[in-house]
Design brief:
It is built from 23 helices and 8 strands. By secondary structure, the chain is of the alpha/beta class. Strands 1-6-3-4-2-5 form a 6-stranded mixed sheet. Helix 5 runs parallel beside helix 6 (about 150-170) and helix 10 (about 230-265) crosses helix 14.
């Protein structure tokens, strides 16, 4: 009788995981690297929060990996856990390249490679990962290809890499703090590794897990869990109120509204299941119907008013709707509990409602553009909520004040030579466009694409070489904010790398005001690009009642 195949389970620190005992190989059909800056930001925020809260005794669990490694070999097929393994490789690579101490640099490099690189992507991605992430100094290099020509995985790897590098090289992150983070990652961060006896068994188990996983949405699970807590005599009425709420705002906003109500009640990030915290916080076992009718339903009506453009006096509605929309471009939900708190405390007809929403929108955008992560954004928004509940006038809310340090960080990002590679580049360009009264809509690849007036590509025999005679000068200006505008996909293809005079004929007929304005220019030289960058920044800051310094 054959013994059954069992999966061996081990808990490992990252020092153990990246010791060289495992050389992870990704199967050719492995899913793409899909983590983007939102996921990376949350990971960094959680890591720093754990360090700040618990110091040197902090521990952090990074999830599970499913692998197959033959006995006596280091060659390890990474069946499940690609996203975490790649992100951790990027994180260690950035920490290494930012480190000045040579012995510490060498130790950090050992988490990326020993005799071989500890993570080997598929053949088509391996050289890219080695060049721009894994090799010493690789995180400071940029691909020769245009960003849009990179694969989905490659674009995400570059974006994640650059986001981590910017966060860890910020002025408030000292070399000592990076050293603490590196040691914390190495010895206090753990993963659970599931060892399958062979690849076939591993894939079968992963497939069975995915196929048999209960297809039950978060909303359905929350509904079933919360209604099971309320008194049986109230259950039918509570179910009817739930259905009314779902009809008002839809299942996605309903689930997030529960999250917002938890936030407003607890004021801090929690790790327990949402349903458990809502049940305890609002005592659903004793007052389930009261919660549904007096808390949940009124809050849902306020969300519906925000989404439908019905908040505020008739004269203010369009502006409030626009402010909510521009916040949603960069954060779909984070700002909502703050807005709900204002509407609950003051109503939408309060004379300071417009001033409040303008200040909230400005704060959210400034924090996102300065790359403040959730570990800083969440406490800041909680302070805003506290000041709302204390009845503080908008002009006196220090939580809404934009500090000079934050302004300097945002200006540095907006003026930077590689603005078009930054997070929120498309959203920022759109936000500037609406200050001129022309919303071009989202970048969708058909109706609207981002056009680089000075072409990014390099050809020596080109009219642009008169003003931009070498690649360095092209790179210093082609990716900057002032060189970006909108064109349809068809017009972008027509414009291509043509000289400025030829492009201007296309720009003059564009449906986008921002682009038609460029057609008024007689030249497009370095000073024109720099001047336009400053004009765009001035428009944005004036809309936020800020001074450009």
């Amino acid at each position: 009788m054959t013994a059954p195949n069992y999966i061996e389970v081990r808990s490992l620190t990252l020092r153990d995981l990246f010791s060289g005992a495992y050389v992870f190989q990704l199967p050719w059909f492995q899913r793409a690297y899909a983590w983007q800056t939102d996921q990376v930001s949350r990971l960094l925020g959680d890591l720093f929060s754990a360090l700040e809260a618990e110091g040197d005794s902090a521990e952090y669990f990074l999830g599970t990996l499913l692998v197959c490694r033959p006995d006596g070999s280091t060659e390890t097929a990474l069946i499940d856990g690609h996203q975490r393994a790649m992100t951790l490789t990027i994180l260690f690579s950035v920490l290494r390249d930012l480190c000045a101490d040579q012995s510490e640099k060498a130790e950090l490099d050992s988490f990326v490679k020993s005799t071989d690189y500890h993570l080997r992507p598929q053949d088509v991605q391996a050289e890219f990962c080695k060049t721009y992430v894994q090799q010493m100094g690789g995180t400071s290099l940029y691909p020769e290809a245009l960003f849009e020509q990179l694969s989905y995985s490659e674009r995400n790897a570059i974006n994640s890499r650059d986001f981590i590098k910017e966060r860890l090289s910020a002025s408030e992150i000292s070399p000592e703090m990076r050293t603490r983070l590196a040691k914390f990652l190495a010895d206090r961060c753990h993963v659970i590794v599931h060892h399958a006896p062979n690849q076939e068994e591993a894939w079968v188990r992963l497939r069975k897990e995915e196929e048999t996983r209960l297809d039950f949405s978060s909303v359905d699970l929350a509904k079933a869990s919360l209604l099971s807590v309320v008194q049986p005599s109230e259950r039918d009425q509570c179910a009817l109120v739930w259905e009314e709420i779902e009809g008002l705002i839809g299942p996605n906003d309903l689930y997030f509204l529960l999250c917002h109500l938890r936030t407003l009640k607890s004021r801090r990030a929690r790790n327990k299941p949402l349903e458990e915290e809502i049940s305890h916080a609002f005592k659903l076992n004793k007052n389930g119907l009261g919660f549904m009718t007096d808390v949940f339903l009124p809050a849902a009506r306020r969300v519906q008013a925000l989404r439908a453009g019905e908040a505020g006096t008739s004269a203010a509605r369009d502006l409030i709707t626009q402010l909510c929309r521009t916040m949603s471009w960069i954060e779909e939900q984070t700002w909502v509990p703050v807005a709900l708190c204002w509407l609950e405390q003051h109503g939408d007809k309060h004379p300071e409602t417009i001033a409040f929403f303008k200040a909230l929108e400005r704060l959210l955008w400034m924090m996102k553009l300065s790359l403040e992560g959730p570990e800083r954004l969440h406490p800041r928004l909680m302070k805003v909520i506290s000041q709302i509940e204390n009845g503080t006038a908008v002009a006196d809310m220090d939580s809404l004040v934009i500090e000079r340090k934050m302004q300097r960080k945002v200006l540095e990002k907006l003026r930077g030579p590689y603005f078009d590679r930054r997070a929120y580049r498309a959203e920022a360009l759109r936000r500037i466009a609406i200050t001129e009264g022309d919303d071009p809509g989202p970048i969708d690849g058909v109706h609207a694409t981002i056009e680089h007036v000075l072409p990014r590509g390099w050809k020596l025999q080109n009219a642009w070489r008169v003003e931009f005679p070498d690649r360095a000068r092209v790179d210093a200006h082609a990716h900057s904010l002032g060189n970006l505008t909108y064109l349809s996909f068809a017009d972008n293809n027509r414009a291509a790398s043509q000289e400025f005079v030829a492009k201007n004929e296309i720009y003059a007929k564009s449906e986008f005001k921002m682009t038609r304005d460029i057609a008024q220019q007689a030249t497009w030289v370095q000073s024109d690009i720099e001047a336009r960058t400053e004009r765009m920044i001035a428009l944005l800051f004036a809309d936020w009642d800020l001074k450009v310094s």
